[in-house]
Amino acid sequence: MTGQPADDGTVLAAGCVLWRRSPRDGGDGGIEIAVVHRPKYDDWSHPKGKLKRGEDPLRGALREVHEETGYDCVPGVPLPTARYVANGRPKEVHYWAAEATDGHFVPNREVDRLLWLPPSAARLRLTHERDRELVDALLDALRTA
User: Fold this and answer.
1) What is the pTM of this model?
2) Which DSSP letter does residue 10 get?
3) Which of 41, 109, 115, 118 has the fewest CB atoms within 10 Å, measured from its CB?
4) What is d(CA 15, CA 22) in angstroms, rounded to the nearest whole number?
5) Are the beta carbons of 65 and 35 closer than 8 angstroms?
6) Under CATH, domain 11-144 is a member of which superfamily?
């Protein structure tokens, strides 16, 4: 599926559950998950954004991660697609697991804060339940990899 919006008016977006190996293992799987704060919505979420017209969802997810976090990443397995209504329109967000490689965060217009948190803390910080479920999906994917 490419493009934005879809023929039925659905807003198409993509993002990643961005993770890295923890510099310290606190008994929480040895990984940290990036969560971003969006001042426009005053929420904490995974990096994501709308697809450009004709853009491949995975390419869009990687672009959005870089734009919002400053990190490059290696995409992994697809994670569950989130479907919900935003601003009165249906929205569909495709997600992938993605391991952070190079980069560093610089606050920007869309994202003013980024935290690297163990999975249990990331679940608590994330604003929406659908984003918490993606943490579980990531952990399941990493366990079976």
Assistant:
1) 0.91
2) P
3) 109
4) 21
5) no
6) Nucleoside Triphosphate Pyrophosphohydrolase (3.90.79.10)
